[in-house]
Amino acid sequence: MAKKKFVVASFDDENVLFPAVKKVRLAGYKIHDVYTPYAVHGLDKALGLRETSLHTAGFIYGISGTTIALGAMSWVFVSDWPLNIGGKPHFPLPAFIPITFETTVLLSAVGMVLTFCYLCQLGPFVKKHHFSSRATDDHFVMVIECTSKTNVEDLKAFLSNTGAFDVNVQEAEANWWLGTYDKEQVLIKDEPTVA
Amino acid sequence: MASIKEQFEVPSKMKTWSMALIVIGVISFILGLITKGMSGDEQEKATFIGTLMYNSIFWMLICNASMFFICATTLAMGGWHTVIKRIPEAISTLVPVFGIITLVIFIYVVLIDRTASIYEWLDKDAVAKDHLLSGKSGFLNPAFFMIWSILAIGIWSILGHRMRKLSSEADEKPMDINTGKSYIWRNTVTAGLFIVWFALTIGSTVPWFWMMSLDAHWYSTMYSWYTFGSSFVTGMSLIALWLIYLKNKGYLGYANENHLHNIGIFIFAFSIFWTYLWFAQYMLIWYGNIPEETVYFKHRVQGAYKGIFFMNIIINFVCPLLILMKRSVKRNYTLMTFMAVLIIFGHWIDFYQMVMGSVRENEASLSWLDFGIASLFIGLMIHFTSRALAKKPLVSEYHPFLKESIAHHI
C-alpha cells in the first residue's frame, strides 16, 4: 500500500474547529479524518459523513441469532431426538424463548463489535499511524489528505488562517484494509445546510 | 426561534371535542347503569363495575406515570426534558381528579355494595372457611384496602402538587448559581420522596390490592412491575401525543425531534421491559404448571380471552419492536402519533383483560360500554390537561437546565 502525504492541523478549541472544518470543505480539500479527545456532538454532520450502517448490521446479526437458535432447538427436540420432558409438547415455544433471546443478543453484540473493529480498521497486530499523540488528551486534530494537485504550502497557510496553532506534514500508510468511508464523503456543495 | 414566553390558549375546537367526549361518556355511563348496573343479574352488574374500575385505574395510573417521569429524570439530574416539562406536569394534574373517581368506585365496591362478585375476599364467611384467604386477611381487608388507597392517591397528589409548584418558581425571576443549586436540591428532595412512595404503591402494594386481589387465591410477584411497565409506557405515549399536538399548533418552539426521539426511546425501551415482565410471569407459571398458579392464565390463554390476550402481545411488543426500532421513526411526527395511539389502545386492552378476565371469566365482551366509559375519561383528560397547560407559560424561562434542554442533541 502506498504511502500518502497528509497535512495535520491541531486546534485547541471546539469552537474554532467547527468553522475550520466548514472552511476547509468549502475550499475543496479532502478531510481524511478529525481526531478528537471526546465525541464532539454534531461533528459527523459538519464533516458530511453519512450515518453509520452498524445498526443495520446489528439487526441482521440479531435475526440470524433468532433463526439459528429456534432452528437448532426445534430440529433437535422435534425431528432428531424427541424427548418427553415433563409432559411438555415437543415444541415448547415459551421454554425456547430465553435461549433464543440470548443467542440473538450474543450474535448481535459480538457481530457488532467485530463489524465496528473492521469499519474502524482496528485489530490485533495492526499498527496505526498516530498523527498527533495529544489527540487523546486535549487537541482536536484535523488531517487532510494531499492529492497530486494539492499545493502543500498554500494549504498550510490556509489552515493557520482558520485558527490552527500547529500545522505539519506527515507521510503515512492510509489504509490497511478495504472498505472505508473515503468514497462516500458527501461534497459540501450538495448539502447547503451545514451547521 | 420562538419567543420564550409561550402561552397556550385552549382552542375552542378542543373544548367542543372534550365536551362531546364527556357527554358521550356520561350517556354511556347512564345507559350502562340502567341496563347493566341496576339489573338483577349479578354478572351484568359485575361487568359494569369492572368496566368502571379498569378504566379509572388505567387512566389514573398513566397520568401518574407523567409525574413519575418528571421525578425520575429530576433524580437522575436529567435536563433534556426541561422544554417539554409542562406537558407531563399538566397531565399529572389529573391524578386527584381521576383519583377521586377511583376512590368513589372503590368506596362503593368495598364499603357499600360488599358483594363478592368483584372481590372474593369481601365475603367474610367464605374467607373464614378458606385457608388461603384467611391467611391473607391481614392484608386483604376493607379497612386496609381503603386506607391504603386513600393514602396512595392522596400522597401522589400532594407530592405532585409540590413538584408543580416548584416548577412554577422557575418562571418568576432569574437564578444565580446558588439559588439555582438550592432550587435543584429542593426539586431532588420532593422527587425522591415521590419515587419512594411510588415504589411502595405502584411498585408493589397498589396493584396487589386493586387488581391482583380480583383473583384472591392467585398471586404473582411480577404483577406490580407489570402494571407499572404498562402504565409508564402508556404515560410516555400520552406525553408524545401532547408534544406532537402542541408542535403542530406552533407552540414549544424549542422542542424538536431530538426531544421526541428521546420520548420514543422511552416508549421503545419500556415496551420491551413490559414484554420481559409479561413473559417472565407467563413462562414460569406455564413451566411449573401448578393448578393454583395456572388459574389466572387458564381462561386467558385457552378460554374466552384468547384473542385479546395474544393481540395484546402483537400490539404492545411486536409493533413497537419492529416499528420503533429505527432512529428515523422515532423522529417522525406522523409515525410517532400512530405508535402512541396504538400503544395507548394496546395497554388499555391489557388493563381490560387484567381486570375483566377475572371479573367475567367465561365471556370477553368488549362492548359499547367499554368505549363509552373510555371516552368519558379521555374527554376529562383533554379538558383538564388543556386547562392546566393554559395556566402557565409552556417554557420555564429561568430553569437552570433550560439551556441544556434547548441544545439537546441525540
3D structure, described in words:
The complex is a heterodimer of chains A (195) and B (410). With 195 residues, chain A is an alpha+beta fold. Chain A has 2 domains: 3-37 and 135-178, Alpha-Beta Plaits (2-Layer Sandwich), CATH 3.30.70; 54-119, no CATH class. Helix content of chain A is 43%, strand content 15%. Chain A has 5 helices and 4 strands; from the N terminus they run βαβαααβαβ. Chain A has helices at 14-26, 43-47, 54-80, 93-119, 152-162, and strands at residues 3-11, 30-35, 140-145, 166-173. A 4-stranded antiparallel beta sheet of chain A has the order 2-3-1-4, covered by helices on one side. The model of chain A is unreliable at 178-185 and 190-195 (pLDDT under 50). Chain B is mostly helical and 410 residues long. Chain B has a domain at 12-247 and 366-406. In chain B, 76% of the residues lie in helices and 0% in strands. Chain B contains 16 helices and no strands. In chain B, α4 (94-113) runs antiparallel to α7. The longest helix of chain B is centred in the first third of the chain and has 34 residues, at 42-75. Classes of the chains: A alpha+beta (195), B mainly alpha (410). Chain A binds chain B through residues 41-42, 51, 55, 59, 86, 88, 94-95, 97-98, and chain B through 279, 282-283, 286-287, 289, 325, 327, 409. Chain B: The chain crosses the membrane at residues 20-37, 57-78, 90-112, 139-159, 191-211, 223-245, 265-287, 307-325, 332-349, 369-390. Chain B: Keywords: Membrane, Transmembrane, Transmembrane helix. Chain B: This is Quinol:cytochrome c oxidoreductase quinone-binding subunit 2. Chain A: The chain crosses the membrane at residues 59-77, 97-120. Chain A: Keywords: Membrane, Transmembrane, Transmembrane helix.
